[in-house]
Structures are given as C-alpha cells and as structure tokens.
Amino acid sequence: MGADRAFAYGAAAGLLGDLLLGDPRRGHPVAAFGRAAAAVEHMLWRDDRGRGALHTAICVGGAVALGSLAARCVRSSPAASVALTGAATWAVVGGTSLAREARAIGRALESGTAEGIAAARARLPHLCGRDPQALDADGIARAVVESVAENTSDAVVGALVWGAFAGVPGLLGFRAVNTLDAMVGHKSPRHLRYGWASARLDDVAGWPGARLTAVLASAAGPDPRGAVRAWRADAATHPSPNAGPVEASFAGALGVRLGGTLSYAGRVEHRPVLNGGGRAVAVEDIDRAVRLSRRVGWLALGAGAVARPAVRAAMRSARRGKGRTS
C-alpha cells in the first residue's frame, strides 16, 4: 500500500471515528495541546510581537515535529500508517461536536419559550464568542449558522487540506495554528500584539481550506448559483479573509442573510450583510447548515485523496529540478 492510499484510508477512518464517537469529554489531545500552549504563554508573555512569534514557533513547531517523528516511526508499516493517520484525523477534526452543539441550540430554540431561548443562550458560547445576552432567537440562529459555516473550514476542511499536502505533520500543524489563533489571536488588550503572529499565521494556513470549503458548499448546497453569486459579491467585505468566502457561500447556498450587527464581549460590530437578497435565518436553517457542513467535509476528504498524488508528484519534480540547477 502506497503513502497516498494510506492517507486516504486513514483520513476516512478518522472522519468516520469522529462521526461515531465525537470528541471525548476528557483527555482530548487538542485540550492537552491547549494546556501546553497556555504554559508556554505563561513563561513567555510580554506585550510584544516578537515574544508572541516565539510562542507560535515553539507550539506549532513542536506539533509538526511530533507528527513528523510519529510518521517516520510507522512509515515501514502500511497498517500502522493508516492507524496513525486515522488517529490524527480523529484528533484534529471536530465536525461531530460542531453538529451536536448547533443542533442542541436549534432544539432549544424550537420550543419558542423563554426557557428555550435562555437554554440556547447558555449553550451559544460553546460555538462562538458572541455575547448571547444581546441576541434574540433569530440572532442566536444566525450566529449558529455563521459558526457552522466558519468552523466547517476551521474544524474539518482546513485540516484535511493540510493532511493531504503534508500527512500527519500537516494535520497536527494546522490544528496547532488554529488552536493558537483561538487562544491568543483575538484583539483583547493582552493579546493584541502578543497574538499577532498566531493570527496572521492562521490567516495563511486557513486560506486554502476556506476557498475549498466555499467551492464545495457552492457545489453541494441547494442553490449553487446563489452561493457563487454571494461569494463573488460579498466575501471581500467581511473583515476576515477566510471567514468571508465561507460564510458568503453558505449564505447563498442556503438562501439566507448572514452578517450585520453583532456583539463580542460588549463590543458592538456592524459587519456587512452577506447575501443581502436572502431571507432572515430561521431556526430550521441550523439543521440545513449542519447537513451542508457534513456534505462539505466528506467531499473535502475525496478532494484531498484525489489531489494528494498530484501534489506529491509536483513536489518531487520541483526537488529534482532544483537538484539539476544547483
């Protein structure tokens, strides 16, 4: 069995494992990485970009090095390579947890009662950093759909793209970058300078996965033309270079409006509307967004498996060409 097949089989097994098992409540590898990254921050923190860049290099470099060492240890055994890729894929993707949280909020909103809305507000921080007390039922539903769209790229497709490109080191490295961005890449007073490197690296690492997510959402959604139209018209207006294409394509595919006024930790933002011709988000759109997210994840696996041999061949050709010219 070649390396390309080992990746395809292992990644498929990892996605299936995530579908069946989800994330454990305790002992998740990403949580362990988060604790280690927090310890590094505790030792290094200064209100300084250079210290933040060192933090990023240590944490991401450590994850990539661990993945490379593990891959080297099993490269002589196809079965072990499949198992390692499967375990790494399961560890870094989070599609099932994303779907469970989104649907739990949707069920709470379906009741239409004050108690249901309160329960939805209590669960919303599991998905995003919005201020839930500032949102009514429609605002909560819109926040959930936006979070499902963005996290389809961050929690599933982006990891599969880097796994296809660089195997287990790519899987672990991408998740390290994305986790660091969530920890220190935001614009709080403590992390505005310190988290700059993590935020910029996340923009770079997330670029290919976001574009693939937008392509696949357009192809797999109920309204492909609407998705492409919203992507082209509105993605660039979003403050995030990667969330813009993803949220716009989901908005167009589902026929809803996303964006607009939102609140983070008491700070109000007025973001451009995505797919302004669409209707307001309804509670039932949460489940539609989750189903679209699932389809996009499995299509991304297929795209990665197909593209991986071509990417590896191009890299080998480039190395040979460089060797001839040196």
Structural class: mainly alpha
Strand % is: under 5%
Number of strands: 2
Across the major sheet, the strand order is: 1-2
User: What low-confidence regions span 5 or more consecutive residues with pLDDT below 50?
Assistant: none
Q: What global shape is seen?
A: globular
Query: From N to C, what is the helix and strand string?
Result: HHHHHHHHHHEEH
Residue share in helices?
A: over 70%
Query: Roughly how many Å is the radius of gyration?
Result: 20 Å
* Count of individual helical segments: 11
What attributes does this structure have?
326 residues, 2 strands, two-stranded antiparallel ribbon, single chain, 11 helices, 5% strand
Describe the structure.
- With 326 residues, the protein is mainly α.
- The chain contains eleven helices and two strands, in the order ααααααααααββα.
- A two-stranded antiparallel sheet has the order 1-2.
- A hairpin with a 2-residue loop joins β1 and β2 (267-274).
- α2 packs antiparallel against α3 (49-74), α3 (49-74) crosses α7 and α7 crosses α8.
- The longest helix has 48 residues, at 137-184.
- It is globular, with a radius of gyration of 20 Å.
- It starts with a helix and ends with a helix.
- The mean pLDDT is 92.
